[in-house]
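Structure (tokenized):
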């Protein structure tokens, strides 16, 4: 595929409701939308780096810098065979996995459109719809949290994740558990604890949670292995897993019992597939995490989550949970059985709506050879 030109859009989209985690509160979400033109087709990719370096060190601006100054100059005019070829061409750039993942997504979309195959088919996904849940941010009080959870249960979500941080953990989880004794419930700390204060989380082990996500620092597999010894509930790693190598080491160390796979975090769908395959061979359950993506990134998440090893519900919610107006013509809806349909049209299977794109674009530039 000859890459004729690449256009970057820095987007800022208002969230329907503010989203608060242990690393901060946001009411708008930034990302880069990447359009790759090749032989009469356009591939879309979404780079999930946000405005602030809270979840990851990457930001929309660092991704713009890495793509425009280091990756795109060698790419425009080139003949890129497939995502693996793209990854080889980007291998001289260390890190910046979200920037690379955004571009890789556009190459997958192009390849699917050229071959008339859905991303699901290219990835060997098997399910026509995938089990999903919703990730609920920190609220004012445990009572307010139970109210928000009730609202999502009324909409049909059958798995709830709540965000926790020191001082807002055991009581919040206990309140939700008391209100809903049989709910599929899990918690996510986004690295807010250290091994020496994580003992405060021990009462969580009595709440029959599906998992405890990323309690400790992202660069600390070893301490996660020490913490996992103290809990029956599986620890799930998110921020700590940036590659299939990290995934293998975490499993062999006993640092986790579950892995959250996000293609953006690990440099793209290709690496995500390797982690999926490894975990399947080691009997480690995985699920598809989210980064408040637009319809473009959500389409890719749905295709990925349709692989057989994704045995826990994903953080992939309906469009209306995130945005009043999305950039895709297609909206995603929750089915009555707490699933969302996987797009079936070629590539990602979504169309970007030009007016919506324009409305949310802060900055735009086209790069060609
Ligand atoms: O840790 O999973 C996370 C959102 C932004 C950054 C990190 C995380 C999240 C979520 C929301 O939990 C998942 C989603 O619904 O997209
Ligand atoms: Mg997480």
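Design, position by position:
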């Amino acid at each position: 595929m000859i890459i004729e030109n690449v256009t970057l859009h820095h987007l800022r989209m208002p969230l329907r409701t503010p989203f608060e985690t242990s690393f901060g509160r946001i009411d708008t979400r930034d990302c880069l939308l990447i359009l790759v033109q090749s032989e009469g087709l356009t591939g879309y990719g979404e780079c999930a780096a946000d405005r602030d370096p809270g979840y990851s060190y990457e930001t929309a601006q660092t991704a713009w810098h890495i793509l425009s100054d280091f990756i795109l100059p060698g790419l425009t005019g080139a003949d890129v065979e497939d995502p693996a070829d793209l990854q080889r061409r980007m291998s001289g750039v260390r890190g910046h996995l979200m920037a690379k993942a955004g571009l890789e997504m556009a190459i997958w979309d192009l390849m699917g459109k050229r071959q008339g195959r859905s991303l699901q088919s290219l990835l060997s996904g098997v399910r026509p719809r995938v089990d999903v849940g919703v990730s609920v941010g920190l609220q004012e009080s445990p009572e307010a949290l139970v109210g928000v959870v009730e609202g999502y249960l009324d909409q049909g979500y059958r798995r709830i994740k709540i965000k926790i941080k020191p001082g807002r953990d055991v009581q919040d989880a206990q309140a939700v558990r008391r209100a809903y004794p049989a709910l599929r419930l899990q918690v996510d700390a986004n690295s807010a604890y250290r091994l020496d204060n994580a003992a405060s989380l021990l009462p969580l082990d009595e709440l029959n949670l599906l998992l405890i996500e990323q309690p400790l620092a992202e660069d600390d597999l070893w301490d996660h292995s020490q913490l996992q010894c103290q809990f029956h509930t599986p620890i799930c790693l998110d921020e700590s897993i940036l590659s299939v190598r990290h995934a293998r080491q975490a499993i062999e160390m006993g640092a986790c019992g579950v892995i959250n796979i996000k293609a953006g975090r690990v440099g793209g769908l290709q690496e995500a597939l390797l982690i999926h395959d490894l975990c399947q061979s080691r009997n480690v359950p995985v699920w598809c995490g989210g980064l408040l993506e637009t319809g473009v990134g959500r389409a890719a998440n749905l295709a990925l989550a349709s692989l057989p090893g994704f045995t826990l519900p994903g953080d992939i919610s309906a469009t209306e949970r995130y945005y009043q107006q999305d950039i895709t013509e297609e909206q995603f809806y929750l089915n009555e059985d707490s699933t969302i349909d996987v797009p079936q049209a070629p590539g990602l299977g979504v169309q970007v709506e030009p007016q919506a794109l324009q409305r949310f674009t802060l900055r735009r530039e086209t790069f060609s050879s």
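Reviewer-requested clarification: The domain at 121-341 is CATH 3.20.20.120 (TIM Barrel). The radius of gyration is 20 Å.
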